[in-house]
Every structure is written in structure tokens, then in C-alpha cells.
Amino acid sequence: MTENNPDSSPAAVKTGLFRTADGQNYLLPFILVTSLFLLWGFCNGMIDILNKHFQDSLNINKEQSGLVQFANYLAYFLMAIPAGLIARKFGYKGGILVGLVFIGAGAFWFVRATDIGAYWAFLLGLFIIALGMTCLETIANPYTTVLGPPESGATRINIAQTINGGGWVLGPIVGGQFVSAAKEGANSNASLHIPYLGIGLFVTILLVVFIFSKIPDLRTQDESQKSGQQTVRIKPSSGQLAGIGIVLLLVWGVLYFFISPILGLVWTLLNLNQDLFLPTKYGLLIIAYIASFIVVAKNWDLFRRRHFTLGIATQFLYVAAQTGIFSFFVNYVLEVNPSVTKAQAATMLGAIGFVLFACGRLFGSAAISKLKPQLVLAAYAAVNVVLCAVVMGGGKPGLFALYGTFFFMSVMFPTIFALGIRGLGDYTKLGSSLIVMSIVGGAIAAPYMGGIADRQTMRCGPVSANDIKSLPAIIDQWNGRSNAVSSFVLQSLSEEDHSVLAGYQHSAANSNQAQGVIVQSLNKIIIGPSIYETNRFKEITLRSETVNLLQQNLTGTNAAPLNRLLLEDAYPLELSRIQSMRVGFVVPLVCFVLVAIYGLFWQKLEDKDAVA
Questions:
Q1: What does the pLDDT read at residue 61?
Q2: pLDDT level of residue 150 (50, 70, 90 thresholds)
Q3: What DSSP string runs through 84-97?
């Protein structure tokens, strides 16, 4: 009689990070898929240097520059469900190929967009690229979770997202070189197509590789169902349908508050008929409400799982926070340190910000492999709440805190994704599509944060003693009549003020008196009529914010914000700049609070879903 060897049974096969219980090793497919993470990380990294670039090259304000993110994340919203359907129909490989085709088409379109030179042309290219990235993210994120044992899914997706972080690092560094090399004026976007041409060529190579590679189509196990049971579709009761309708009404009501002004920006940008704006806006809102009601009611067995449904909301909030921080990093740096150039700020974004982001992924992956991922998520989000509060304080401490947010938000997207789709079984692809669809939060955050900053700029006015960064330097500028602006300022001074400033040259004992003269003189100019004259400011480099206010033809007391910015541009090293961007960081702060709450209560939600 032969004894059974327990080591030869299927259950005894040793599993690993990429080896399943049946002995299959999925390391090679994982390596191929992680190349896609690198690709869309690079594309996303490129996007975040375009806000400030378009503000300067196209003379648009911060709110309008937020349409860069709107075009990008609108594509995620529109393409997420079709991408899931493509994956369901043609498998993971088919969805990947479709995504690569879209990215290649959008990248090559940038060659034509630079010839057109209009804002809409660049936004169209970003939108097409984002359609492809949506396909890849919808498919590649859940695919990494099934390329090995289910319990290590969160670790694999964080490893892949670490590679994605490498793309985020390279994007602004490489793209920033072409942006900084661009000439001012009409041809300032002439070289912008070069990095996108490189993306198109890289995508072409990937297309060939994936066409001839074997990509297995795997399914995740539904942990909420017992083995051998047949899936039973659960339909909502009439009371639940009423509840679904009320909840969706509230959700779309809140979204309308944020989306409505953004649609107005798009409508104005495209010069569409204003008489059609309101009917179109409300029509889209009604269509969105009805469509979402049908999707939820038809897939109630999926949406009744609270860890998934709240995972969608949490991912929406996280991406809103991430996008806002990434998009206006360059603006924040330039406000804190005016001596930094755009190219240097873009390099700082890649070489410091995104390197910290990638390091956070590495440390986060290690932490998640040892600790519960939901608790790591909650802890990281709580730290970022504190850091965002410091960012809102401005100055160098705010800048260092801004760097810190990159590290601590690094693991949030993949962790929320993995927690949200855990145990969805046959619903995994649809659930993945819906979580990717929630990335539309990024489309809302950037314009909204930009709008807050623009309104803060409009409220700027008088200077204080703390705004004088170098008293000797500004007195030297005035007494030396270093430019036409200094000559203009001197003409507004009384003889007594002249003597006070002249006396400062011989003795620093009257510095308080001299400082008072400067503050009083500047504020007298600020609250007066517009000081802008072409000859007076022809030697002064004006920021995009200043140019935008000039285009509004502000007069009377309304000219105070313009005069303040003009004086800041005339004396960039002597006067502190208004840090309007810091106020907008209240948006990511609130988002991180809600992300932390999801992490804390995820286990309770998942336990209830498992027995429901």
C-alpha cells in the first residue's frame, strides 16, 4: 500500500509573490505590465509642468490652466466603463493594445498641435492620450493583483506603482528641458511636441512587444462566495431603489457645485453659443443622473458592498488631492522663491517631489507587506492632513511640507484600489472601471484650486513691513533710479521722505523710519489708479498673473491688486510676493481627512460585506 506524499498535493505547492497555489509563475507577465506603469507615469509627470507653462505662453490664469487636468481626467471619466467592457470582451491583452493605440495617436497629434498653437489643440492631445491611459490603468491595476496569490495583491500593485513613480520622476525633468528651452512669445510652444514624439515612438515599440507576447487572462476569486456556489444576482427592492435615487441626487448636486464653473470655462474657451450653455449643462446633468441610477440598480450586488462603493468615493477624493498638489507645485515654488526659474521648479518637481513619491512607494510597499494596508493608508493620510496645514502657512516651512506630501500620498492610489476591488470576483473588471472612473476627481480639483488662488490674488492689496525683504536693496533701487518704476516712485515722495531715505545711507539707526516711508509710499501707489504704462514697464518681466490682470483693464480702487503685482514684478528680490496659491491647499487637506476615515473603517465595512 502506497502512502500519499503530502508535499505532492496541489495544496502543498509553495506560493510566492508571483507563484500561485497551482504552481503557475507570472513574473514575466508582471514585468511586461509594469512597463505600462512607467509609460503612463511619464505621461502624467509631463502634464504637471504644463499648467505654469501655458499660464505664461498663452497668457491664461490659474483657473484656466486647470483645464489641462480637466481634459486629462475627463477622459478617465468617459473611458473607464468602455475600457472595462473592452477588457471583458477582448481580455486583458486586447484592452492593453487599445490603450496603447490611443496614447500613440495622442502623442503624435502634438506635432500638429504645436503648428496650430491654440490651447484647445493641446488639450485635445492630452485628452486622447488620457483615453489610452484610462484603458491601461483600468486593466493593468487589477491585473497585477491576480498575478499571484490574492493575499499579496496589494504588495504587487504597490511594486508596480513604484515603477510608475519612476515615470513621474522622469516626466517633469525631461519635459521641463523642452519647456525651458522654448522661446518667449508666439513660438514658446514650438518644441513641446518633441517629448511627445518620443512617447509615440516608445508606444509603437510596446505595441509590437505586446502583440507577440502571451498575456494570460486571469480571474480573481470572489471571497464573499463559497467555493462551488453559483453567482446569484441580487436586485434592489423598491425601498432600496428610492434610496439609490436620493443618494445619487445628493451626489450629483454636490458635483454640480464644482463642475458648473468648469463647464463655463470650457464653453468660453471653445467660443460656443452662450444661449445653449444652460440647456446643455442641465441636459448633461440629467443624463448623468439617469445613467448612474441605471448602472447602480443593474449592478446592485456590486454597489451594495460598502467597501467598494466608498472606495470609489475615496479614490475620487485622493486623486483630487494628488492632482491639486502636483498641478500647482511649480506655482507654489515660484511664489515662495521668486529667484527660481520655471525650469528649475520643474526639475525640483521631478528630482525631489517625485523621487520622494517613488521612495514613499518603496517604503509603503514594505510597510503594507508587514502591516494591514488599510491602517497604513489611514496613517499616511493623517500625516498629510498636518502637512497640508503647514503648506497653507506658506514660506519655506510650507515648501518643505509640500515635499513631504509627495512621500506620504505615494501609496494611497494603489492601496485604495486594491482595498476597493478585494473580493469582487466576476465584478472585478467592472469594479476596476468604476474606481478608475472616479479619477475624474482630478478634473475638478485643479480648476477649483486655481480659482481659489485667482480670487485670493484679486484680494491682495497693501504691503506691510514684513513684505520688505531687503530694506537696503530697495532704498538703493530708488535712490539709484535703477529703472523707470523707481523714478516714478521717487516723484511721489515728499521732500521729508527723500531726506529720510538719504539719511539711511549714512546711518542704519533710522531704519524703522525709512521702512515706514517705504511702506507708506508703496501703499499710496497701490490704492491709486493703475500705474501701468508701456514705457514704464518695458524693462520689467511681468508674470502671467500680472498680464491676466492687465487684460481685465482694472480701474480706480479695483486696480489695487494689479498695482501690487506690478510692484512685486519691478522689485522681485526686494518685495515678498503674494502667496495666493497656498490658500487653495485647503482642498487636498479636506480630501486627506476623508481618506484617513476610509482607511480606519475599511475593515468593518469589508466584514459586513462578507456576511451580507
A1: 77
A2: confident
A3: HHHHHHHHHHHHHH
> 3-state DSSP call for residue 468?
strand
CB-CB contact of 576 with 466 (8 Å) = yes
Give the dihedral of Cα atoms 237, 238, 242, 243; nearest 10 deg.
-20
Higher pLDDT, 145 or 386: 386
Domain 18-221+304-459+585-611: which CATH number of 1.10.10.10, 2.20.28.10, 3.40.50.720, 1.20.1250.20: 1.20.1250.20
> Nine-digit cell at 467?
513684505
Does 533 have pLDDT greater than 80?
Answer: yes
- Report which DSSP code applies to 509: G
Over the stretch 435-491, which tens digit does the pLDDT of each residue have? 878 888 888 877 878 777 777 665 666 777 777 877 788 877 777 776 788 888 888
Distance CA 54, CA 50 (A): 6
Enter the C-alpha cell of residue 174: 525631461
Residue 239, Ramachandran bin (φ over 0: left; ψ between -120 and 50: alpha; else beta): alpha
Q: Can you tell me which residue has the cell 499579496?
A: 152
Q: Which of 43, 35, 139, 148 is nearest to 94 (CA)?
A: 139
pLDDT at 233: 67
The domain spans of the chain are 18-221+304-459+585-611, 237-297, 465-577
Q: Provide the 10 A C-beta neighbour count for residue 31.
A: 12
End-to-end Cα spacing for the chain: 47
Among 58-67, 331-340, 367-376, the range with the most confident prediction by mean pLDDT is 367-376
CB under 8 Å, gap of 24 or more: what pairs does 269-274 form?
269/64, 269/67, 269/119, 269/120, 270/120
Residues 6+ apart with CB under 8 A from 117: 186, 189
Alpha-carbon distance of 543 to 61, in angstroms, equals: 10
Q: DSSP assignment of 540-585, as one string?
A: SPPPHHHHHHHHTT--GGGGHHHHHHHHHHHSTTTBPPP-GGGGGG
| pTM score, whole prediction | 0.73
Provide the CA 187 distance to its chain's centre, in angstroms: 27
Amino acid at 12: A
Owner of C-alpha cell 501703499:
523
Q: What is the pLDDT of residue 553?
A: 65
**How many percent of the chain have pLDDT more than 70?**
89
Cβ pair 412, 167 in contact under 8 A: no
113-147 residue pLDDT tens: 888 888 888 999 999 999 999 888 888 877 887 78
Q: Which amino acid is at 519?
A: V
pLDDT at 124: 92
Contact (Cβ atoms closer than 8 angstroms) between residue 581 and residue 332: yes
Residues 6+ apart with CB under 8 A from 138: 79, 80, 83, 84, 87, 95, 429, 432, 433, 436
pLDDT digits (tens, 9 = 90+) for 35-44: 899 998 899 8
HEC string for 368-412: HHHCCHHHHHHHHHHHHHHHHHHHHHCHHHHHHHHHHHHHHCCCH
What pLDDT is attached to residue 202? 92
Q: What is the chain's Cα-based Rg? A: 27
